[in-house]
Design goal:
This protein has 312 residues and is an all-alpha fold. It has two domains: 1-40; 103-312, MetI-like fold. Helix content is 79%, strand content 0%. The chain has 13 helices and no strands. The two termini are 43 Å apart.
Length: 312
């Protein structure tokens, strides 16, 4: 929307302007190369990190002036990124023309669709990420490293590339799946699985191997030790990954525009269609509901993190 020329913008322009698949594929390949470099750097840095134990230290008192200064600096990003947009959105919602343009039935339908596909995408992404996370957290080897690294690469692909790839695949291989919820949810899972993979891997790795060994000595099988020891202790982190996928899915637009079933829409697509037509008053209710719906998993996520901190 801001027309800033990033690689993702270039891919979108190549497809929308002339449907130039070769140029768009080249730009997408460059994104994949960048993602490979970042993943390789992360894996290289992971081995050099040393684990330390936190030591309690005495808090140094701050003068009132310094306290106000640092509080203002910390509060500035949330004010610019959250407070100002919410104030502008509230002002738009309060206008009479906006209230008259609300289509309640379409708004409810888009909300239900958004929540449904987000929940499905979170579950599918978690199902795909858990085996890779367990392998990466408990085993070492070249093939494990390759599989885990490949799981993160989809994070470097823009939604339009994944969406168009699935359009071509479904039309060529399984035409009956074209523009169905199955393909749409699978696209979400491919795009956002790295969010679930990272948190799940860290959570599983944080479960002490000694606890698993104790469970095995008490007669538990590998699966029983996994289910009774690893899963309960790693569940908060695994849940965080699923919530991150759900939040990101609610806002995803390019793949949704390409793959959504005919006649259905999400809050993001409704918001985009009205904004593109200059109907900002009609777009405001969808934006407000999208903020409220996305705030639900965000609040749950905040609660999960608070519980995890208390346990630590």
């Amino acid at each position: 929307m801001l027309r800033f020329q990033t690689l993702t913008w270039g891919v979108q322009q190549a497809y929308s302007a002339s449907f130039d698949r070769s140029q768009a594929a080249l730009l997408a390949l460059l994104l994949v190369v960048i993602a490979i470099v970042v993943v390789a750097a992360e894996r290289g840095a992971r081995g050099s990190v040393t684990r330390t134990t936190a030591v309690h230290s005495t808090k140094e008192p701050l003068t009132p002036l310094v306290r106000v200064l640092f509080t203002s600096l910390v509060a500035l990003p949330p004010a610019i990124g959250v407070l100002i947009p919410l104030v502008g959105l509230s002002a738009r919602l309060a206008e009479a023309t906006t209230l008259r343009s609300i289509n309640v039935e379409r708004l409810v339908e888009a909300t239900i669709t958004t929540m449904g596909v987000s929940l499905a995408a979170a579950l599918v992404a978690l199902a795909l990420a858990l085996p890779i996370a367990a392998l990466g957290a408990r085993y070492r080897g070249r093939w494990v490293s390759v599989v885990e690294s490949a799981g993160y690469l989809s994070n470097g692909l823009p939604g339009i590339v994944v969406g168009l790839s699935l359009v071509f695949f479904s039309l060529s291989v399984i035409p009956s799946l074209y523009q169905t919820v199955v393909v749409l949810v699978f696209a979400y899972a491919v795009l956002f699985m790295p969010k679930a993979l990272g948190t799940a891997r860290a959570s599983i790795e944080g479960v002490s191997v000694d606890l698993i060994n104790v469970a095995r000595t008490l007669g538990a099988s590998r699966f029983q030790a996994w289910w009774r020891v690893t899963v309960p202790l790693a569940l908060p982190g695994i849940g965080i990954g699923a919530l991150l996928v759900a939040i990101t899915t609610m806002k995803e637009l390019p793949a949704t525009l390409l793959l959504r079933p005919l006649g259905s829409s999400t809050l993001a697509t409704e918001l985009w269609s009205r904004t593109a037509a200059g109907e900002f008053g009609a777009a405001a209710p969808y934006a407000a509901v999208l903020v409220l719906v996305a705030a639900i998993p965000a609040m749950i996520l905040s609660g999960v993190r608070s519980v995890a901190k208390e346990e630590l």
